[in-house]
């Protein structure tokens, strides 16, 4: 009898970094839809989410509050700085604004994220 092997890929995701163009307001609805799909993915249920709002060097770009509102995250962010969520069963999620071309903002976001990665 021949043994059969079914290929299985096991991927462990430590975190999700979700980059949104804060200048492209017409696509916020699309960004929300994609983000919602990731947030409701069971395999990512306990994974921390860092949401980066990019292109804040452009004056017309959305503010952090505006982005949080349009992505439906107003009451879901878990707090900047060191917040201990270990026993709370709450997934870490925060919004940081950045400008990748100006090399600013995302450092704070990744620093925040690093406290939740084992
Ligand atoms: N002003 C500014 N431009 C940026 C920044 N980051 C990327 N870009 C520019 O935006 C342009 C398009 O890049 P993206 O917005 O990343 O495009 P994309 O996500 O690949 O494509 P779309 O899915 O169509 O948005 C490029 O010319 C980048 O140089 C930023 O922080 N500020």
UniProtKB/TrEMBL annotation:
Pfam families: Arf (PF00025). Coiled coil: none annotated. SUPFAM superfamilies: P-loop containing nucleoside triphosphate hydrolases. GTP binds at residues 54-57, 100-101. It is found in: Endoplasmic reticulum; Golgi apparatus. GO terms for biological process: intracellular protein transport; vesicle-mediated transport. This is GTP-binding protein SAR1A. It comes from Trifolium subterraneum (Subterranean clover).
């Amino acid at each position: 009898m021949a043994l059969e092997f079914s290929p299985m890929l096991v991927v462990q995701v430590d975190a999700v970094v979700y980059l949104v163009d804060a200048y492209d307001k017409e696509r916020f609805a699309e960004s929300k839809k994609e983000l919602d799909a990731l947030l409701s993915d069971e395999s990512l249920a306990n994974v921390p989410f860092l949401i980066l709002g990019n292109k804040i060097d452009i004056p017309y770009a959305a503010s952090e509050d505006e982005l949080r509102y349009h992505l439906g995250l107003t009451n879901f962010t878990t707090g900047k700085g060191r917040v201990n969520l270990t026993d709370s069963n709450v997934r870490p999620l925060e919004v940081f604004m950045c400008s990748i071309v100006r090399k600013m903002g995302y450092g704070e976001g990744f620093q925040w994220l690093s406290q939740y990665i084992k």
